[in-house]
Amino acid sequence: MALFLSACAAPEGGPPKATDAQINELAASITALRDDIDPSEAARAARIAYDYPLELAEQYGITDTPLAHNRKVNRGDRPRGLCWHWAEDLQAKLNSEGFRTLEVHRAIANGLNPILISHSTALISAKGDSMYEAIVLDPWRFGGKLFWSKTLEDKRYDWYPRLEILTERRRRRLAYEGEL
Questions:
Q1: Do the strands 145-150 and 159-161 form a parallel or antiparallel pair, or are they unpaired?
Q2: Per-domain boundaries in the chain
Q3: Average pLDDT value over all residues in the chain
Q4: Which long-range contacts (CB under 8 A, 24 or more apart) does 37-41 make?
Q5: Which among 137, 132, 160 has a CA at the least distance from the CA of 33?
Q6: Buried b (16+ CB within 10 A) or exposed e, 31-55
């Protein structure tokens, strides 16, 4: 089903607005990550995770599937909308909230595989927990309609810490260039 949804064109007027039930379900899942998470912070984070990608979809001019939009960005027809743009912008928005009990992470999937396209996302966890104890917040996957799941339960991607992937890519590039 996920592959079919990602292949569909963006709906007329952009991605659909989330229902209160969807937002409440994400808020409950964030709150359940650990006993000391402030439920009001979890509710705020869930609302942002669903609503802010709708704003981004409009800003980015999303009218196609994620991969079709990527081609437009890569050709210079659109300024933003690659997965890392979504992740960067969502992370910045969530971090601007100054959460006391929540922490935002960044992750990359397929980042070291030369055959697969790498994919970036933002994640949210209890303050001090790792990204593996977090919830993936992926607005790119369905062109502005939020996908979320626990990190280790995401059936489509295996996520790794962004800085680890970027460090390894740099090491490999330097080795290739003979600078190591």
A1: unpaired
A2: 2-176
A3: 92
A4: 37/101, 37/102, 37/126, 38/99, 38/100, 38/101, 38/102, 41/97, 41/99, 41/100, 41/101, 41/102
A5: 132
A6: bebeeebbeebbbbbbbbbbebbbe
DSSP 15: S
Report pTM.
0.89
pLDDT at 7: 47
Full DSSP string of 53-74: HHHHHHHHT--S-HHHHHHHHH
Three-class SS state of 127: coil
At residue 12, the pLDDT reads 64
- φ and ψ of 37, to 5 deg: -80, 130
What pLDDT is stored for residue 5 in this prediction? Answer: 40
Q: Alpha-carbon distance 39 to 142, whole Å?
A: 27
pLDDT at residue 2 is higher than 60: no
Span 115-136, pLDDT tens digits:
888 999 999 999 999 999 999 9
**Phi and psi dihedrals of 103, rounded to 5?**
-135, 140
Question: Do residues 112 and 95 touch, judged by C-beta distance below 8 A?
Answer: no
How many Cβ atoms are within 10 Å of 17's Cβ, its own excluded? 11
